[in-house]
Amino acid sequence: MKRLVIATRGSQLALWQAEHTKARLLAVAPELVVDFNVITTSGDKILDVPLAKVGGKGLFVKEIEQALLDRAADLAVHSMKDVPAELAPGLQLAAVSSREVPWDALCARDALTVETLPQGASVGTSSMRRQCQLLAKRPDLKISMLRGNVPTRIRRLDEGVFDAIVLAAAGLTRLGLAARITQELPLDVSIPAVAQGVLGFETRADDAEVIELVRRAIHDPAEARRVAAERAFLLEMGGSCQTPLAAHARDLADGTGLGLVGMCGMPDGSRILRAEVTGAAADEGDAAALGVRLAAELLAQGAGEILAATK
Q1: What is the CATH number of domain 227-310?
Q2: Has 35 been annotated as catalytic?
Q3: Alpha carbons 146 and 48: distance in angstroms, whole number
Q4: CA–CA separation, 311 vs 201, rounded Å?
Q5: How many CB atoms lie within 10 A of CB 137?
Q6: CB-based burial label for 126 (10 Å; 0-12, 13-18, 19+)
Q7: Cα angle vertex 203, ends 200, 206, to 5°?
Q8: pLDDT digits over 99-109, tens only?
Q9: Which of these is catalytic: 74, 82, 104, 163?
Q10: What angle do CA 129, 135, 140 make, to 5 degrees?
Q11: Which tens digits make up the pLDDT trace of 121-152?
Q12: pTM value?
């Protein structure tokens, strides 16, 4: 292979991710020429409507997947939390990166936290999952839609449109904006999105050369097990952007396996279910079984009623 084309969105964060991937590839294949195919996705174009109403996070992926299928690109780099539970036929998830900070982050004026925001404070987010968990803790908050790239969202906070906004800490950290975080939200306040903080690398399923290269350059097998657990939960729940769902896997302290915590709730925070499972995770299959168990726990609590109501 002499040349490889990376498909990426054009936001500042997406281009950071593409450049990071390029550097990792060149570290193991310095003779390679790496180019970018920058794609404006439907999710980038439709900014005045909540994602839940127009197709969900898959809108950030569809056109990029099509570029792979059309051979206009060889490798797609995604924020793993944006990748649907099921990929397009003919494509596969070849590798995942190590995880950056996984937590949600509150960025507030006056260095406030979720607990110290004033009564009725205005909070911006594009995520039903974040809205649900924030309102479960603080039903007085006024949650409003906030779409756009990271700098745009920060600018709207600085302009006084919101008292606070909630973003992924990973994106802020990667863009050198970690100083804007006034609180990293702990698990008891906000369980992160599935695979939040991880980069995913998608290829054509039959492109063995690219698969081998990206796995050698950037794949993290331990992270892949954690991601497999979280994504198996998402697939088993059959959820969409209309349903607040979250899962986060972590290594057990004794090194025997994984702990997986998950959440399903109503968008207004009026009902929220949580569960946790632990078990062996010697490989991705074991880890995925944990995700299925977690889904079963929540369904036994009544999550099916929430899924039906939000769809």
Answers
A1: 3.30.160.40
A2: no
A3: 9
A4: 30
A5: 15
A6: buried
A7: 145
A8: 999 999 999 98
A9: 82
A10: 155
A11: 999 998 999 999 999 999 999 999 998 889 99
A12: 0.92
Q: What is the pLDDT of residue 254?
A: 85
Name the residue among 234, 117, 237 with its Cα closest to residue 166. Answer: 117
- Which helix (H) or strand (E) is 136 found in, with range? helix 128-137
Q: Are 259 and 191 in contact (CB under 8 A)?
A: no
Instruction: Say whether pLDDT at 57 is over 60.
Output: no
- C-alpha span between 195 and 96 (Å, rounded): 10
| Correct CATH for 3-97+198-219 of 3.40.50.720, 3.40.50.12780, 2.120.10.30, 3.40.190.10 | 3.40.190.10
Number of residues that make up the chain: 311
CATH of 104-184, one of 3.40.190.10, 3.50.50.60, 3.40.50.150, 3.40.1360.10: 3.40.190.10
The pLDDT tens digits for 71-98 are 999 999 999 998 988 899 999 999 999 9
- Asked if 214 contacts 277 with a C-beta cutoff of 8 angstroms, the reply is no
**Using CA atoms, how far apart are residues 257 and 218, in angstroms rounded to an integer?**
23
